[in-house]
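Quick note —
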Amino acid sequence: MEAANSQIDEFQEALLQIDRVRAAEIFENIYLTYRNFETLEQLTMGALERIGAGWEKGQLSLSQVYMSGVICEELIEKYVPKERVSDKMEVPTIKNTAGCLKGLEIIEKLKKAVKKETPIIGGVTAPFSLPVMQMGFEKYLKLIYFRKDAFNHLMKINEAFCVDWANAQLEAGATAIGYANPLASPNIIERETYISRGFEVDKRTIARIKGPVATKLASGIALPVMKELIETGTKAVNVSVEDDIVEAKKIAEKKVAIIGNLNAVDMINWDKEK
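Predicted structure written out below.
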C-alpha cells in the first residue's frame, strides 16, 4: 500500500523540525500498519522530494535538506531488508573459471597473430559497477546507501578478482585494459555518492593493475567526475557525446587521453560526408 499524503505531510514536518523522535514514531506506526518496506520507501521519497523542491524554490535551508536525509538514512537502516552478502564469498580463481580461461586463450592467439603490430585491449568490469550484474541494480543501491559494512566486504572481493583478471589478460598478451565503470557516471549515480563510495575503490584497483587502463562509462557523461577519474590513475577516459570535449581536454591537461564523444546510435544514419 502507498503512504497517504497526510502521513507524508506529518513525516515531512518532523524532518523539517529535525525531530528524530517524532520521525521515528511515524516510521514505526506506518511499518506496524502496513508491514512492508515499500510503504516506508514511498513515505521517505515523498517527503524528501517535497523538501528538495522547497529548497530549490528558496523556501528551505540546505541544513534542513541535509538533516532530513540523515534522519531518513538512520530510519531506513533499521527497517531495510538485509541484502545478504555472505562472509563465505570467495574470490573466483581464474584458472578454475572456464569463461576466463577461454578469454585468455583468445588473447594468446591474437597476440601470436598480430605480434606487436596491433594493440590488444582486454577488459574488466570495475568492482564498483560489477554488483549490478551480481545482485541487480535495486538491491545494490540499497547496499550502497544503507549497508556500508556489506558494501565494503563485497568491494574487497570484487577488487581482488578484478585485479587478478586484468593482470591475467595482460600476461596473456593484452596491451591495455578497458575498465568498464558505468556507475561512475552522474547519469547513473550522484557524483557525491561515487566520490564517497566508488572513487577509492577505483584508485586501489587501478593501482594494482600491471598495465595501462582506459576507463569506460558506457556512454554516460564523464565531465562532472573527470578530475576524480584522472586521480584514479587511469590513462584514458571515454567521454560521452553529451560531454563538452573541449572542456574535457582542458581538464585532462595531457594527463589522460580522451576517447569517444561519438553518438553510436546516430552514426547508423550518417552519410558518407559525415
